[in-house]
Amino acid sequence: MAEEQRSESTLTVLVALGANFAIAVLKLVAGLITGSAAMLAEAAHSVADTFTEVFLLTALRRSGRPADRRHPFGYGKERYVWSLLAAVSIFASGAVFALYEGISTIVGGGEEQESAWVAYLVLGLAFVLEGVSWLRAVKQVRAEAAQENRRPREYLRLADDPTVKTVFLEDSAALIGLLLAFGGLVLHGLTGDGVWDGLASVLIGVLLAVVAYILGRTNLRLLIGRQADPVIVRDIRRRLSAAPEVDAVVDLLTMVTGTDRVLLCARLDFADDLTAHELELACVRIAAELTERYTELDEIFLEPVPRTDPELRARVLARYGRPLRSD
């Protein structure tokens, strides 16, 4: 399943890369011919998106390497590093240029609009190409959300794969940006005032900044070490509490170590009458049952502890504010 999703993500990124590169060239030519700030801002937008896809392809390739001695938990988090760089690229090469171009046009009054039909033609072609890429991303989001029995919005919020989320958000922003550029060109043509063109460029810059912030925040949380899906965590806690050898779940720690990879550490108070051999067998059986139920559990550590230990209890209370419960 993980390999299939990785292939789907790669195809989604490749479709977006081809579309954005072609669109960037068209927008740049149209911007130079018409002198439109909005078109130049959209060209910068597409250039940023093209660099973003390159970063995402690098993320998919490098994060798939197996664990080794230097990185015993694998390279999964490297996907979040490259995805974070993609967010920085959107802001640095897209938002900043669009804001600068828009403000300069507003302050300077803008240039007289020339060959507007070229810009309209390019915007139409760009909308079709971006639409193809966007539909591809939407298809993958809906399919993966259905697999997890979630709404697409909830899936995007909780997903540990930043690639499809990045493509979906940048393509959505691209379609909105095209509409803003079209509006700026139309109003510039109707009024003869270049301020509208500059305003469209500023709005495109703000849009890109918002997208970059959302993606940057998402990848930052994953890099720091986000908890696994709360639904999975609650179910694991119930299963551990239901094990006949376990008297209480004292502490339960999870961390996303990559796409479809979760590290689990559970501190359990086992029944006092268990022998050392029975305790070992219980740990092996519980870990095997959890791995069979949740394939994303990459590493599982079960630690026997007494629930009455005051230091451990204080640490749990400091983290959660209350003792863990099985419900």
TrEMBL record:
Record-linked Gene3D superfamilies: Cation efflux protein transmembrane domain
Cation efflux protein transmembrane domain boundaries: 13-224
Transmembrane regions: 12-33, 39-60, 80-103, 115-135, 173-192, 198-216
Membrane disposition: Multi-pass membrane protein
Coiled coil regions, renumbered to chain: none
Record's keyword terms, sorted: Membrane, Transmembrane, Transmembrane helix, Transport
InterPro entries reported in the protein's UniProt record: Cation_efflux, Cation_efflux_CTD_sf, Cation_efflux_TM, Cation_efflux_TMD_sf, SLC30A9
Subcellular location: Membrane
Domain of life: Bacteria
Principal location class: membrane
Official protein name in the record: Cation transporter
